[in-house]
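tool=predict chain=A
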Amino acid sequence: MNTPFSIGRTTILTRRSDRTSSAFRRLTAFLLVFFLILGTLSAPVQAAITVKEPDASLKNRTTMYVSSTLSGRHGLCVLLENVDGAGRKQFGLIDTGNANTSAMRAFLDKHGVKTLDFLIMTHMHNDHYGNTVWVINNYNVKKLYIKQFDSTWSNGNQAVYEKIIRAAVLSPNVKQIYGVGYGLSVNKTASPKASKSFVDFLKAHGKDKYKFKGLFNSSNTALYLGAASLRIFNWEIWASDGTSTWVPGKNFRCKVQQFAPDRSDNHYSLGVRVTRGSEKIWIGGDMTNLRLKNMRHAPYEGDEDRLASQIGKVNVAVLNHHGRGGSNAASFLRTLKPSYVVYTSTKAEIMSGGNSFAQSTLNFIRNTLRLKNDHILWAYDYWGSHLDDVAVTLTSNGKTSSSKSGSTANTGSSANKALTASLLPGNTYSNYDVTGDGKKDIVTISAPKSGSNFKGLSISVNKKVVWSTKVSFKDKKPVTLVRLPGSKPYVCISILSPSGNKGKGKVLGLYRYGKIGSTGSKFGLTESYNYLTHMPISKYTYRTSPSISCTAKRITVVTSGSDTLSSNAFVTFALELNKGTLKPVDTVYPYTTVMGKTGTIKLKTKTKLYGWLDAEKKSTTLAKGKKVTVVGVRKNKAGKTRYRIIDSKKKVWWIDAPSS
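tool=predict ok
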C-alpha cells in the first residue's frame, strides 16, 4: 500500500517492502521527528478557537461549518451559526456549493436551520451557486447579497444569475437584495446579454423593485449575525484608472482586462471576514492575485495585494480559490497570518507534482507560517473521500449581558490584540476594559427608543454616567470600542442626526476615559479626535453608521452619505497613533469618493489641471463648459481643497474645488 506524507518541501511516497533499507527508514524517521518538533516549538497558541463540532449546550459563540459534501473538490458552502447567552440561534449562509439538493437539505437540517438571516453569493460559478435557487425556494432567506452581473467580462453563468434574481423577487421571504441595481438589470445597454424574458419579468414585477437596494457600497457591505460582525470585501468595481467609477458594459471596467484574456468571474469574487470580539475568520471565495508573470498578469496589482492590509490578521483562513494556484500569495498569507487554514480541495490535487503553485502555498504554510498538520484542515482526504465537516468556533467576545436576558459572558480579550467591538443600545457589557486600567468594566449603553428614533444616548461605566446627549438619532450602532494593541482603548461615538435636526448635535469622533478638566476628580469620556472638523468639504450629510476596523497600528473609519456633488458618497478616515496622538495618515486629510455619474459637474470657468494633489504648477487647462467626473476630494498639504477628476479622454487630474 502506498502512504503519502510530507516532510519540509519534499513529498515522499513510501512502499512497505523487504527491500527497503533500514538505514533509509531510520533517516526518514529522524527527519520526520525533527520537523515535527520544529513545528511544535513555533506553533501559535490559540485560546479562543476550537476546531471540532461544538457541544450543543455551548452558548455565547459563533461557529463556522464548512460542508465537506458540498465544498470538496473545488466547491464552497459555509454555514455561520451564532448562539446568544439564552441559547437562541441565528444562521447565515455563504455560497451553496456543488449542486446536490439532498446533501444541502441534510447539511442545513442537521444544524436546525429554518431561517437564514442572509445568503451571500461570492460569484457565479457552479461550484458556488449549485443549490442557491433551491435554498431560496425552500428556506426563509431574509437578505440576498450578490453582485450585479456584467456579461462583458464574466465567464459566470448569466442564465443561473437570472434564475437566482427571479427566485429572490418571487420569494415572499426575501426582503432585500444587495449589490444589484434594478435600473441596471432592465437596461439592455448596461446588461447586453440579459435575456428578454428576464428583462420582461423584472418590468412585470416593478412593484417589487423596492427589494433592490442598489450596488454595493461601504455601508451595505457590513452586516451582523448576532454578536458576530461581517464585512464583505472586493465589492469595489475598479476601472482602468484604479478608481471605483463603473461604466456598465464597458471593457475598461477592470485593469486585468488590458493584459489578460482570462476574464473569469473568480477575479471579481467577494470575500467575507467574520469577527467576534478580537477573533476573525476569513472566507475568500475564489479571489485571485493576478500578478504572476507566467500567468500573463504582471502589470496588474492583484486583489489579494490590494485588500490584504484592509483584511488584517485573522485566526482562521478558508483559503482563496480552494487553496489552488493563482491565489493565496505569500505576501497575502503573511499579512493575514492565520493560525488555521481550511482547504476545500483534495490533498492529492494540492500535493501533486502538476500543481506547483498550490504546492508552493502549502510549503509556505508549513515552513514559514509554521502550521502543524492539525492546523491545516481539509474537506477531502488524499484519495478524495469526504472527511467530517470542518467546524471552527469563536468564543472570545467579551459580549453581552442583554437587559432582557440578563445573561453575561466572561471571556474578555487581551490588551495585546487590536479590538473593534460594537456596543449596541439597550445592552450591558461586562468584559471590556474601557477605563484603561487593565481591569474589566461594566459598560451600559442606554438609549430610550421612540418609533424608529433613539431619544438620546447615555454611556455608563461601572454604574456612573461618563457621557450623554439628548440628541435624537437613528443609528443602531452608535458606540464602538476600539483599541490598538498595547494602548488604552478608544470609544468611537457616532450619532448621525435624522432629517429635521438641521445637522445639530452630530457627533463622530474618538474619546478616551480620563479626568475631565485640568482640576477636580470627575472622570468621563474626553474627545481625542473629531472627524467632523477634518472634512474636506463643507457640506456632508451622513446616512448610516460608520464601519470601523482596527489593525496593529491603524484605525480606519468609513462612513457613507451625501455631499454637494453626490447623493451617494463615502468618506474614509485612516488614523495612526504617533507618540500618544492620533494623526491622519496616507492622505493627510480624509478622502471623499463620489460614486457614479452623480459626480459629473460642468466647469463654470476655465480651470487649471494639476498632475498630482500637491502640485502648484498647472499642467494644462480645461475650457469653460467642459464636463468632468469627480471621483475624489482631498485637501493638499497647503490646506487647499481639490477634486480628483476624470476628463473625456479618461485621464486623471486634480482641480481646485469650485467655489460654491
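Residues 509 and 531 are 5 Å apart (CA to CA). DSSP finds twelve helices and 42 strands in the chain.
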